[in-house]
C-alpha cells in the first residue's frame, strides 16, 4: 500500500483464465489455460499441444518450470476430463440450450439525391442467439 497521504501510482491486471471448447457435445473437447499480466499473455497451456508455451521471457521461464513437473503436467493434460467434461452439464443452460429470439425492425429509407427513385425498406434483425 502507498504511504499515508500518497496516491496510487498505477493500476495493474493479473488474470488467469481457463477455457473449455466443446465440439459436438463432449465428443471433442479442448482445454486452454492462459496467464495474462497487464494485457500481455505470459504463458498458455493448450490441451491439443499438451504443454505450456511461453510468450514473454517470464512466461518462457514459467513454461520451462511447469513442463518439467510430471505431476503438474498430468493434472493439466487431464483437465479436459476433470474440469471441462465434469462441468459440461452446468454449462448447458448458458451455451447449448441458450436461445434468444431476434429483435426485428422494419423502417422506410427515403430516397436521396445520390440514390433517386422510390424509397427502400430496411429490415434489421439483431440481438439473437445462436447465430445460425
TrEMBL record:
Location(s) in or outside the cell: Membrane
Main location: membrane
InterPro entries: Ig-like_dom_sf, MHC/Immunoglobulin, MHC_I/II-like_Ag-recog, MHC_II_a/b_N, MHC_II_b_N
GO biological process, one term: adaptive immune response
Residue ranges of domain MHC class II beta chain N-terminal in the record: 18-92
Pfam families to which the protein is assigned, alphabetical: MHC_II_beta
Membrane topology reported for the UniProt record: Single-pass type I membrane protein
GO cellular component, one term: MHC class II protein complex
Keyword annotations of the record: Adaptive immunity, Disulfide bond, Glycoprotein, Immunity, Membrane, MHC II, Transmembrane, Transmembrane helix
Domain of life where this protein originates: Eukaryota
Protein name: MHC class II antigen
Organism whose genome encodes this protein: Geothlypis trichas (Common yellowthroat)
